[in-house]
Amino acid sequence: MLKVLVTGGAGYIGSHVVKLLGERGYQVGIIDNLSSGSLKQVLYGKLWVLDLKEREKVLSVLKEFKPEVLLHFAGSIVVEESVKDPLKYYENNVGNTIELLCAMKEAKINNFIFSSSAAVYGIPEIIPVPETAELRPINPYGQTKAMIEKILEDLAQAGEINYISLRYFNVAGADREGKIGPNYRQVTHLILRALKAAKGELPFLEIYGTDYPTSDGTCIRDYIYVMDLAEAHLLAMEYLLDGGKSMALNCGYGRGFSVREVIEEVKRVTKRDFKVVEGRRRPGDPPILIADNTKIKEILNWRPTYDSLEYMIKTAWEWEIKN
Ligand code: UDP
Q1: Substitution candidate for ligand 1 out of 189, 211, 215, 226 with most atoms within 8 A of CB
Q2: Position in ligand 1 atom list of the atom nearest CA 212
């Protein structure tokens, strides 16, 4: 069976993809430095606790495990932190990805699936945003993703790599079996913070900005269920191994919910009321992000099966109260 190496496999999205790979019988190897991931999220495969900076060690893993394809999730992901500490992001995301690509080149592994982000678009002119939109990130986090995409494009041009960059929109929810879920140490995402407020772990939920040019003044996002996103990775992988062309693909459902709508849904699903405070805008937030998902449906034949905000919140809530 196909051998797949996953970086960041102990993190939120990586661990859900590892679970799906394991269930489908792939042979899984994982590299994670456990700086933000956790061991108990890793349900399948062999784990090497390593930092991608350690190129020689990564190279030995590649030579030992001999994967046919790499799925690269490892990286720093908090937009606001990237505004305050950009160098951390350029080092962790861009620098370490270059280290990984160098090791791959030496080990002669050339299939690569990259965790990109809708943050590469910045404030898009067209909504839903197609992949052809100009990349104009408005924060260092988005910049790092756009830079890596550019590096991959150049490597593909040079015939050194085949890649798919998956541009994630707002990933949410937990696997329904309840064994794994969002495992962030720093909880910054809206749904998770709202669940913490519902649980009483936060005294209130703050809305970051109510003066955006949207119907209710709050930001609109395209929330996608983590297992639908995981499925997209498996399809992207198989597509590349079948000789598919390198490209970037949006991963979203093509519709959006405002911050206020999400909060209402969290209150409804959890059957708990909590205090909501209207605050100021958070730096680096675009008003509306919704995916045009025509391309991923066409190229990978990907089909959303859990397009339900209720389901995402429900699975995340079950995970939250269990942990
Ligand atoms: N948000 C908010 N309060 C919070 C967390 C997030 O109002 O406690 C808003 C945030 O400003 C953005 C939206 O919710 O408009 C989604 O933010 P999140 O951090 O979940 O994802 P992002 O879109 O930044 O990747």
Answers
A1: 189
A2: 15
**Which residue of 276, 282, 290, 313 sits with most ligand 1 atoms within 8 Å of its CB, as the best mutation to test the pocket?**
282
- Condensed to tens digits (0 to 9), the pLDDT of residues 29-79 reads 999 999 999 999 999 999 999 999 999 999 999 999 999 999 999 999 998
235-256: per-residue pLDDT in tens?
999 999 999 999 999 999 999 9
- Catalytic residue, from 26, 44, 89, 141: name it: 141
Who contacts 188 (Cβ-Cβ below 8 Å, separation ≥6)?
A: 78, 79, 80
Measured from CB, residues less than 6 Å from any atom of ligand 1 are 79, 170, 188-190, 193, 205-208, 219, 221, 259, 282, 285
Provide the residue type at 293 as one letter.
N
Residue 229 pLDDT exceeds 90: yes
Q: To the nearest 10°, report the CA torsion of 186, 188, 189, 195.
A: 80
Domains contained in the chain, CATH given: 3-172+223-251 (3.40.50.720), 190-221+254-322 (3.90.25.10)
pLDDT digits (tens, 9 = 90+) for 190-225: 999 999 999 999 999 999 999 999 999 999 999 999
* CA dist., res. 58 & res. 112, Å (int): 15
Is the pTM higher than 0.70? The answer reads yes
Query: For residue 58, how many C-alpha atoms fall within 13 Å in the half-sphere facing its CB?
Result: 26
Q: Catalytic site residue 141? A: yes
